[in-house]
Amino acid sequence: MSSIDKMLIMGIRSFSPQSQQGGVIEFGKPLTVITGHNGAGKTTIIECLKYATCGYTPPNTKNGAFVNDPKVAGEREVKAQIKLRFHDVSGRNTVCVRSLVATQKGRTDRVEVKTLEGTISRMEHGERCSISSKCAEMDREMTTLLGVSKPVLNHVIFCHQEDSTWPLQEGKALKTKFDDIFASTRYIKALDAIKKCNKEQNQHVKEFNTELSYLQENKKKSQEIKEELESTQMQLKVLEDNLQKIVIELKPLQADINTLEEKLHNYQKIENKIESYNAVKKQILKNQENLRSKVKKLMPESLNELNDRLIEFDRTVASTEAESKHLSTQLKNKSEQNKKENQNYQSMYREYCNAIQASKTNKQTMEELDNLIIKVAKIYDFADFSSAPFSVEQIKRFMECMKQKYRSVMKDEDLTKNDYSKRLTDIQAKITDQEKMQIKFQEAESLRKSSQEECKRKMAEIDNELNTLSFATSELANIEKELRRYERELEDAKSVGTLSDLELEIDKLKKEKATYNDKLMELRNEMVNLQRFASQQAEIELLKRDKEAKERAIHQLKSQYGDDLNAMFGCIPDQVTRKISEYIREKETECDSLSLKIRRAQQNLSGTETSLAIEQDKLERKQKTLSELNEKAFEICGNQDFDLQLERLQSSLEKLRIEVGAINASQHFFHKYIMKLEEQDSPCPLCHRRFGSRSENTSLIEEIRTKVNSIPSRLQQHKEKIEVQQRKYEELLQLKPVRDRISGLEDELPTLKAKINDYQANLQNEKKTVNDITEIKCLLESELAVARKIAPQMETMNVYETELKDLERKIVLQTTQLNVKGTGGSKRNLQAVNKEYEELQSKSDTLSRMIDRKSQSILQQQKDISDLERIANDLKSQKFQCQAKLQGVNRLQDEKARLAVEISDYERKIMEAKSQIKPIANSLAKLKKEKSDLENQHEDARESFRTQLTEVKEYGDKAISLNREIKKYKDSGYETKVAEGEAEMQRKKEILDDLSATCERLSNKIQENERFLSAQKLEKRYLEDNIQIRRNEKEIETHELKIIELNQELKGGDITSTRRNLQKRKSREEELLKERSRIDGLMTGLREKVNSAQRNLKSPMFAKAEKEYFDKQIDITTTEMVIKDLSKYHKVLDRAIMRYHNSKMQEINKIIRELWINTYRGSDIDTIEIRSEEEQDVAAGAAAPRSRRSYNYRVVMIKGDTALDMRGRCSAGQKILASLIIRLALAEAFCINCGILALDEPTTNLDEDNIESLAQSLIDILQNRSKQRNFQLVIITHDERFAIMLARSGFTSHFYRVWKDSTKGNYSAIEQTDAENMPSRLAMNANDDDDQY
């Protein structure tokens, strides 16, 4: 059992936040008494215990009132801590630490309280272990360690003083607290969860039944598809046999055709080669003849010598080209240098122009400055500034004069400002003195007026009171009359003797009701026995129904799968599960063997397919290449003959080259003719004839020059034609290897086609092998699938047979037990006993209603007497008030006369003050007007001086700016640039001329080299033509030898006979292929039908149709079983909750009854009880079944057999005592593992007798629980007699006193005192309280 040992309090409410001044208290066993005056901090100890154990702060402390206020402590932040040492339910020493901090927010009064990290530490296995609030919920940990729930800690063990009367609160709040203590909400939620789950399972059953009908349709459709599939597969097998016969006949026929085609292809290949060689030879001869006709000079050298000569010729041309390249580089460098020098020249020219422009601008600036100096000098009378231009020294002196003028104006402004300031200060001093005097008299007047108004208000109040008291005499007479009347009625009500008669009748009715209750108890026990035997008989019936269901399931499985078992084993074996397992293993072994064969056959098939794909890919590539080459040849040659087109291009090129050479030569001769014609008396260079006149000579020269000028354009045109035809000629030459490649491809294609045919034949054979093995495997797999499908059903059947044996055994056992026990000797059935029970219960209820009516009559009479006593007491109080009012009339009249004298005196003083204020106000207005005029004059003078200063500053700034521009021009060096610029530009011009001449010379040299290279190209062409003639002669000789060899090879074969045999075999092949295509078409349709059926069977709808149908049946059965179990569990749990609640309430009321009888000294209440009543579900109606069990609670007081609600009918003392006793009873009932109970001011509102009896009851409790090692009672009180009685009980040797220590900041302090000194200490505390108040 858990217990508390010691607690440290720092910074909580009035306890000091310093550790050395904090409060420490040790809790004794079994009693701890704490005393102290009001406000000392006693209740804070209970609040700290509650916060440490369950984390609840006291009521109304959300604004930070739980922590010491930072404003009172004089700190911005106050830290608080509660440290509690206790023993948990296992007896381990544990320490709980909770910390808070209160912070003052700015200048506002708002205080913010935050919770800091808390810890729980304890010793485990010799080591201290700690957990933090960061990693665990401290409230939950503390309730676990203390062994009691959080609501019990809050409402029972450490109940706050403000909530101590919660058992008598209104119904809703009381229900909430009792539900928390009983933890009924959790069980109600559990019942709701079970009911919800049951409802969901019922919904699932409905859904499963809907799905089951759908799955049954799928199962039927699946069987139809399987039958159609078997029929189609039989037709497909017949067609496959016919196709196999055709393939057998077709295979040797195709082999003969391939052999003959290959032989014929070889003959055609030889003929094609002969034709190709003849065509090439013919083309070479044509080219040879064309070359010989074009070449003017045949060179006698051999082919090697001609090649050496061509190499030497190329070397000479390369040397000339290198020289031209070097000259071009020099020309480029010189051109770039010329460009750069030209840019420098342009830049220098721009700078020269800028310098001239700057010189002109500077001259204008100097003239503007001179004009400004003359103008300003005239305005301000400066001497020696009448004529321009001005020197640098004169300009400096002018600037100095401007500065002196500016200072002079500033000085005059300061003198004027000081004068006006002095005069304004004097006037302001006079105004201030007058205003002070005026305010003084006004305040005196206002004070006298307010005093006068206060006197008038008091006088009006006195008049009202006097008017009211004028009616007090008559009111007093009426009150006395009413008081005498109610006193007589009260005496009459008390003298009536009907209360005792009613009490005797109630006692008689209660005894009669007790007799009925005993009989009802006997009948209830008899009904329980009958119900117990009835439930056992129902259980036997349930077992029999389960047995019949198992037998039906076994019979259904045997009838459903009997045919399959007969097909596999010839009968239904005994150990069917083991037999099916062996059968499955055998079939799986055969399937694995066939799978290995299929994989090997597929590997061979895959290799053949790969080789076939490679050869087909080669064939496609070669056919594609041949097509591309033919297209390329067609693009270049078109439909024309290749050799003829090549010869024409060669002849055209030759003609154009000759024409170009003739044009170049004519240009040389034309220049030579012009030079000779320009000589003096020169004849015609061709005919050597003399010219008749100089004009004829000139005309001829002009004509020749015109022709010379047209030569470059003609040369360009011929060169362009040569380039176009040369490109075309080279394209034709490049096409020659293409033609050779075309011939080679045409020879290779027939061989590839024959090879592909062989691979295709092998592929067909391998496919047939794979298909045969696959069919055998499919048959085995279908048998295996049937066995696997049956296996789980047979296992289910074995389970059913085992369960059937268990059910038979249970039925026999239950039947035997029922026969042995019998029905308890009862001769009646359950209906008869129940009917008698209902009749007795009706009579008992009638007696209860009669008792309630008579109890109500007693309460009504008691209420009438109480109302009369209350009215009489109110009238007595009103009588005393009227008598007190009549005694104060004379005092009010004297006070009224005094106030009238004071009002007239205040009126005279107010008139005097007004007469003194008027002359002061006139003088003050005159002074303010004089001050305003002086301020206006001062502002005008300031504006004049500001204008003068602005004008001087503007003239000065302009002169400084102009002078700065002049100085900047001198510093820039533009004068030097203007003087030296012209000579430098002349030097640059000469450099540019030299560079231009050098560039022209290099350009002429490059043109000369180009003309030499052009002449050498013609010579190179002659060499190349002679070399080609030699090569053609060699190729013609080679081709003639190859043609002779091929003709010899062709003479040994018979081409006509081969072609005739090939045609005959191809006709037969075509007939067989047509028949095969027809069969293939039929098989394709049947295969598609088979595949469609197989796809349907593999689809989600039919693949597992039978399994899903069976699984859904299992789901429905198991769900229905779950629904039955949930219903049973809901009923059992509901019944258990009801029994627990009833037993607990009986235990609590028993304890309450004992404590009340031993404690309460009054005779008006025999005892009190907590009544719990089931709450009906109003929304569902009275006839609907109850969905949840809920209780309403109320506290009743009982007198005899009458029970009345205690709320609103009891006194304050009875309320306190009842709440205290209920807490003691709840602690006894619910605190099994926690023996702690704290009572804060339990004697509040109790009289002396009840205080003594409460003390005695607590002492009795301590005596009864003293043997319990961890029982602890903590009592806080300031009642002396109550504390002395507890201290003298012998259960504690000391007590604690809580007091305010004024020497340590008026913080609360805790002091331990021996119990022997308790009376004297309490007397001293009472004296301390009197001094404080």
Structural notes for this entry:
The protein is an alpha+beta fold and 1333 residues long. Helices cover 76% and strands 8% of the residues. The protein has 22 helices and 15 strands. It has helices at 42-54, 70-73, 138-146, 150-157, 171-182, 184-294, 303-380, 392-469, 472-495, 498-569, 576-637, 642-677, 694-821, 830-886, 889-972, 974-1050, 1055-1098, 1105-1159, 1212-1230, 1248-1265, 1280-1287, 1318-1332, and strands spanning 3-10, 23-26, 31-35, 77-87, 93-104, 111-115, 119-124, 127-132, 1167-1174, 1191-1199, 1202-1205, 1236-1240, 1272-1276, 1294-1301, 1307-1314. The strands form three sheets. Strands 1, 2, 4, 5, 6, 7 and 8 form a seven-stranded antiparallel beta sheet that branches. Strands 12-13-3-14-15 form a five-stranded mixed beta sheet, with helices on both faces.
